[in-house]
Amino acid sequence: MSDIIRRHRVAASLGAALIISPFVISFAQSASNAVPTTQTPVAGITAPNGSFAPIVAADKPAVVTVTTVMKAQPESTDDGMPLGNSPFDEYFRQFFGDQGMPAPQTPPQQAPRAEALGSGFIVAADGTIVTNNHVVDGASSIKVTLDDGTELPAKLVGRDAKNDLAVLKIKSDKPLPTVKWGDSDRLMTGDQVLAIGNPFGIGTTVTAGIVSARGRDLHSGPFDDFIQIDAPINHGNSGGPLVDVSGNVVGINTAIYSPNGGSVGVGFAIPSDQAQKVVAKLMKDGSIQYGYLGVEIQPVTPDVASAIGLDHPGGALVSQVNEGSPAAKAGVETGDVIVSFAGQDVKDPKDLSRAVADVAPGVRETLDIWRKGKAMNVSVDVGRNGDDVKTASVPDESGAPSAEQGSRVPAIGLGLMDITPDVRQEMNLAANQHGALVASVNPDKPASASGIQPGDIIVAVNQAPVKTARQVTQAIAQAGKSGRKSVLLLVERDGSQIYVAVPFANG
Hints:
This protein has 507 residues and is an alpha+beta fold. The protein has helices at residues 2-14, 53-59, 87-96, 133-136, 272-285, 302-308, 326-330, 349-357, 421-426, 446-449, 469-481; strands at residues 63-70, 114-124, 128-131, 139-145, 151-160, 165-169, 192-197, 205-216, 226-229, 241-243, 249-256, 267-271, 290-292, 295-299, 316-321, 337-341, 344-345, 364-371, 374-381, 383-385, 392-393, 407-409, 414-418, 436-441, 457-461, 464-465, 486-493, 496-503.
């Protein structure tokens, strides 16, 4: 019990942290060890009419280099992360090292000036340029170098961190070349593409490849829908265009997946259909207002669907409703499954997050929900999502160690305790905190495999509130007798709530 309390205190003092798993790189099996097979030779990348030169000649003049002068970096915290840096910055360092981030040129105590390098492309003859937000984030001044070497100061028209896009503007005495937007929705895996940009600052460079995959989610934000490509992109390619064989922009090169900071053939681009809408809003207003519901959501897995009586998995399960939020005012409750929003089907939490974010604040929309075996709908006045507010977030889940004490629930492997006054005081729990404390988890039982941890507090079973360990035990037993394949537990952990479906199969 003392270990549980100590862990609780540590978790409370550390607060939230962004955790990015290290990349796992595997190598192909040697040809000498492979079983010989007869295969039809696959042709390499081939250009229309034998050459990409006409496409390059048309598009390259509209691709620019973006150089930013950054403010001097503040001193670092004890954990080595510079004060004022966002987790989004740290995310992109995983892909680009310091690309788009300041690199001190002199010792920190001399308050150095730092520069960062990226790419961009001209989309309007008046000098409107598109690039990545992380290329210009934190810049005190921005300079654009045209393909012919002309250097011009640039003004930041607007930027959107959630989509990692920014719009710049330059003035020129001569007509400026442009590129046209293409239709990324028509891209298919295997289609040929060209990436244009200024890698490592060596000058405008063109690389060729194919679309490797669509719809990649890098967990960088609510709008992740990246195009994966194998055309080599490197440091400095950020913000450059990805073009199709017609020479139209179908993506904005944004990130790479690499064990060493260089290209290994796994790059990512923001789809043009997504980018074009954002750019149009930034050109008009300079910023974007996103809709906000104010709910913590998680996927409806087959186990969760079974536990709550849904005939199939799908939708977004509400694990917590933020106090005073639009969702709370509309009557959304913990345990609701949101199956559609504004007439759009919600297949998973990502669908809901994107749909809500696309709605202008103040607009009234309808939520179709599943609540305790019944379908119903509620009207909600969508709120405004600031930079520090999540439209809808998914709580972290983690594994669980084991212990052996307390009132046992044999079916799933939990040891439970009531929240006594001493426990409440030691764990600094609120006076109105009710439920059952998880004192131990059998590592060989389903609760452990489902991620239940010692120190968790079970506050509801199958969407019914519980106040004591006995009530939890009885509710789990009743769920087993009813013939359901799993039981749904609402667990409170470190101030957040999450639903965990625990199957009976191995109980």
